[in-house]
């Protein structure tokens, strides 16, 4: 079972979280339609470490960026993002 260390709740089962997308597949607000399509749909899917956006949907509902190895599922970092990350 994969555990994710929520910055607000501590370690919880991955089943409490919902994966959204990788950080580098988020199109900037000012991107043209062509640029956004390129970023959203034609990114590579490499093996290795990636920054992913997750939400603790069945917990505190906060967003976070999880740095995870795509093959081993090893998580090296979890950081809060969004309104909950503000002091
Ligand atoms: Zn949480």
From TrEMBL:
Pfam families: SoxD. One of its GO terms (biological process) is tetrahydrofolate metabolic process. It comes from the Bacteria. Coiled coil: none annotated. GO terms for molecular function: sarcosine oxidase activity. InterPro entries: SoxD (IPR006279), SoxD_sf (IPR038561). This is Sarcosine oxidase subunit delta. It comes from Sphingorhabdus profundilacus. The lineage of its organism: Bacteria, Pseudomonadati, Pseudomonadota, Alphaproteobacteria, Sphingomonadales.
